[in-house]
Write a structure and sequence with these properties.
Layout (H helix, E strand, L loop, with lengths): L31 H15 L7 E4 L6 H15 L3 E7 L6 H13 L10 H15 L2 E7 L3 H4 L3 H9 L1 H4 L5 E7 L6 H4 L2 H7 L2 E4 L5 H15 L7 H14 L2 H17 L7 H11 L2 H8 L3 H14 L5 E2 H12 L3 H13 L3 E8 L1 E8 L3 H8 L2
Parallel strand pairs: 1-4, 1-5, 2-3, 3-4
Antiparallel strand pairs: 6-8, 7-8
Helix pairs in contact: 1-2, 3-4, 6-9, 10-11, 10-12, 11-12, 12-13, 15-16, 15-18
Length: 375
C-alpha cells in the first residue's frame, strides 16, 4: 500500500506547463488545412506587400488562437520584415487600447498613460512602420467584442486606410470570431467593406478521435507513466466531448491530477475526475465574467437574481428592474443584453404574440453565476 502513497516532495507532473490554457505545443495536429490557408493569406507580407485580410471563425476551443500563435511564431523565426501583433479584444476593445498594444509590440512599452491622444499614438505607430520598413499583421482575437462597444468600424477603418494618411504603410488584418451567429460583413460599413474584402477560414469542432489524440499527447508529455489509467483517460475524453470544448478537457486533466496530489496518491481516480469536472465545466463562465465591465457584471447579477424564481423574464421587465439601479437608458441596456447573449452568458430570444416580446434566460445555474460574479 505504501508504494501508492505520494511522498511530500514528489509530483505526478512531468511537465505541468503542458496543461496550461495558453501552452503552445511543438506538434500541432488536425489544423493543417487551416494553417496552410492562413499561410497563403499572409504570404504577400513576407515579400513586403500587404497581407490579405482574413476572418478565422469557429466555436471556442477549436484551435483558432493556437493556429495563429504558431503562425506568428514561424513568422518571427523567419523574418523581421513582417511583424505580427496579437490583441485580445476581450481585454482591449477600444481603438485607442488596440493601437496602444500595437505601439507596445513595436517599441517594447506602452504609450504614456496620460496625456497621449489617439492621433499621437497612431502617428507614432505609422512613423515606426515607415522608418523600419516593416509590414504589420494585426490579429484581433475575439474581434466580435469590438461590435458591442461600437469600435469595430473605427478600428478597421484606421488600420486598413492608414496608407491614405501615411503613404507606404502596409497593414493586414486577421479577425478571430468565436460566435458563429456573427456575420462581420453585415456589421461593417461601406467605407470599411470596400478595403476589407476578407477570406473566411472555418475551424470545425474537433471530432472525438482528434480530441482523444490531443489529450493523449498532453498526458504523455505532462504526466509520469501510470498516473492516469486508460479507463480514467476515456472518462476525461467523454466529459470533454460532453462540454464541447477541448480547453475543458485540458483543464480537467490538470485539476484531476492536482486532486490526486492533494490526497498524496500516485494515481488519478474517478472521484478526482468527477470533482475536477465540477470546476472545469464552468471554465467559459469563469473566464468570460472576468472580462466583463462593472456595469455588465451588475446587470448579469440582477438577471441571475431574477432567474432564481424560475419566472419568465422579458427584456422590458428586466429593464425596469435595473433602470434606476444602474442609471441607464433602454438603448444602452439592450446593447449590454446583446453582448451577454453573444458571450453565451444569456439567451435572448423572441415570443410571437401581440408583437414580438424579447425574452431573456440565463445559460447557467443562477447560484453559480452569482458566485462567479461576486468574486
Amino acid at each position: 500500500m505504501a508504494k501508492n502513497v505520494l511522498m511530500w516532495d514528489e509530483t505526478l507532473f512531468r511537465d505541468p506547463e503542458v496543461f496550461e490554457i495558453d501552452y503552445l505545443p511543438d506538434e500541432f495536429h488536425h489544423r493543417e488545412t487551416q494553417m496552410q490557408e492562413l499561410a497563403f493569406q499572409i504570404r504577400p507580407g513576407l515579400r513586403g506587400a500587404r497581407p490579405l485580410n482574413t476572418i478565422c471563425k469557429g466555436l471556442p476551443g477549436t484551435g483558432k488562437t493556437t493556429s495563429i500563435k504558431k503562425l506568428s511564431q514561424e513568422i518571427e523565426e523567419t523574418t523581421k520584415k513582417l511583424v505580427p501583433v496579437q490583441v485580445n479584444c476581450q481585454l482591449d476593445n477600444t481603438k485607442f487600447s488596440i493601437f496602444s498594444q500595437i505601439y507596445r509590440r513595436l517599441t517594447g512599452h506602452l504609450p504614456p498613460t496620460s496625456g497621449a491622444s489617439f492621433k499621437q499614438v497612431f502617428d507614432a505607430v505609422a512613423r515606426i512602420i515607415l522608418r523600419d520598413d516593416v509590414v504589420l499583421l494585426v490579429i484581433l482575437d475575439d474581434a466580435n467584442y469590438l461590435m458591442y462597444e461600437g469600435e469595430l468600424n473605427k478600428t478597421l477603418y484606421t488600420l486598413l486606410r492608414s496608407h491614405e494618411s501615411y503613404p507606404g504603410t502596409r497593414i493586414g488584418v486577421i479577425l478571430v470570431i468565436s460566435d458563429l451567429a456573427v456575420n462581420i460583413l453585415d456589421e461593417v460599413d461601406a467605407r470599411v467593406a470596400s478595403v476589407f474584402r476578407p477570406t473566411e477560414i472555418y475551424f470545425p469542432p474537433y471530432a472525438e478521435g482528434e480530441i482523444r489524440q490531443i489529450l493523449h499527447e498532453r498526458v504523455l508529455q505532462g504526466l509520469y507513466p501510470g498516473v492516469l489509467s486508460s479507463e480514467m483517460f476515456e472518462l476525461v475524453v467523454q466529459q470533454t466531448m460532453q462540454s464541447g470544448d477541448l480547453r475543458v478537457g485540458i483543464d480537467l486533466l490538470k485539476r484531476a491530477v492536482l486532486n490526486a496530489e492533494h490526497d498524496a496518491r500516485k494515481i488519478v481516480t474517478q472521484d478526482d475526475i468527477t470533482k475536477a469536472y465540477e470546476v472545469s465545466r464552468y471554465l467559459h463562465l469563469t473566464f468570460t465574467i472576468r472580462v466583463l465591465k462593472p456595469e455588465e457584471k451588475l446587470l448579469l447579477k440582477e438577471i441571475a437574481t431574477l432567474s432564481t424564481s424560475d419566472a419568465e423574464m422579458n427584456a422590458g421587465e428586466v429593464f425596469k428592474r435595473v433602470r434606476d439601479l444602474m442609471g441607464i437608458r433602454y438603448t444602452k441596456f439592450y446593447e449590454m443584453i446583446r453582448k451577454l447573449d453573444a458571450m453565451r452568458l444569456v439567451n435572448l430570444h423572441y415570443r410571437e404574440g401581440r408583437g414580438r416580446t424579447r425574452l431573456i434566460s440565463l445559460r447557467y445555474e443562477p447560484a453559480r453565476v452569482l458566485e462567479e460574479v461576486s468574486r
